[in-house]
Design goal:
The chain is of the alpha/beta class. The protein contains seven helices and 16 strands. 47% of the residues are buried.
């Protein structure tokens, strides 16, 4: 079931994922159901929704199961789903990812349960953060992707990204140049970086691109050393926060007004004024 563009309801699923796969899937299923009950036609799960902080190579062995689970949920609910991110042992061309790394992949699934998009995270979070974790080295665990992805879901053209990608405006510009109306950022922003930059980056991205921007974040405490910021939100192309959550699990559902977005783009045609050409990602494996 889909709804017209002007009234499309989208959902950000906010979770506190841990290392237990079945517990994570049960939490995700409950929140997806809540989103559908509120009228969502598209729901975005957070980064690492199926497992956070464990052995990603072991979890990647369940990749086929996770694809099937997402397709079953979408078909059962009649709702398109972006499956935050799941680890994969293989590149898009089928070649294996050399151990110990994996790809971290977002999956776009239609309301009929068909996978129509696969996006591998381009930018990996290697940073020193003033929290209990301290050092973050995603490049030790993950191999970066190479391509951008936009997909039609629930009558909306969606630009796919993951978490740290939010800090790279060139990616957002490439996605809107490819026709994106909604940019989605399934994320696991830390409590420290989230408090400083999460809302700021989401709103700036919306203003710079003239797109709706949806951030679906992890929340709460994942263990003694790692906490996520929560505050999932939908931001309008004008930069207004349409709706947001606090720092607890939940399903945020809010409308997209694409007619107003088109009107804004006509009144302030930023993309037509763009004088820099961004060709796309480079091979940084």
């Amino acid at each position: 079931m889909t709804v017209p563009n002007a009234a499309a309801q989208v959902a950000a699923i906010q979770m506190t994922s841990g290392k237990a796969l079945q517990a994570n899937l049960a939490q995700a299923a409950e929140l997806l159901q809540a989103a559908r009950d509120k009228g969502a036609c598209l729901a975005v799960l957070p980064e690492n929704f199926a497992g956070y902080g464990g052995d990603y190579r072991a979890l990647a062995a369940e990749y086929t199961l996770l694809e099937q689970w997402l397709c079953e949920q979408a078909s059962r609910l009649g709702m398109a789903i972006i499956g935050g991110s799941v680890p994969s042992l293989h590149r898009p061309d089928g070649e294996p990812v050399p151990a110990p790394r994996v790809r971290t992949r977002s999956l776009a699934v239609t309301a009929d349960g068909e996978i129509v998009g696969r996006y591998d995270k381009l930018h990996l979070f290697d940073a020193q953060v003033q929290d209990a974790q301290g050092q973050y080295r995603e490049s030790d665990l993950f191999e970066p992707g190479e391509t951008i992805v936009t997909v039609p879901l629930a009558d909306v053209q969606v630009g796919m990204a993951i978490c740290y990608d939010l800090r790279f405006p060139a990616l957002a510009q490439r996605l809107v140049s490819a026709g994106a109306q909604l940019l989605v950022y399934p994320s696991a922003f830390t409590a420290v970086t989230g408090a400083a930059h999460w809302e700021l980056l989401l709103r700036a991205t919306a203003v710079q691109t003239g797109c709706y921007v949806l951030g679906a974040n992890q929340c709460g405490q994942h263990g003694p050393r790692r906490a996520s910021y929560g505050h999932s939100m939908l931001v309008s192309p004008w930069g207004d926060v349409v709706a947001s959550l606090e720092n607890a699990p939940g399903a945020l559902v809010a409308p997209l007004d694409l007619a107003t977005m088109d009107e804004l783009r006509q009144r302030m045609p930023v993309q037509q004024h763009q004088r820099l050409r961004i060709e796309g990602p480079y091979d940084a494996n």
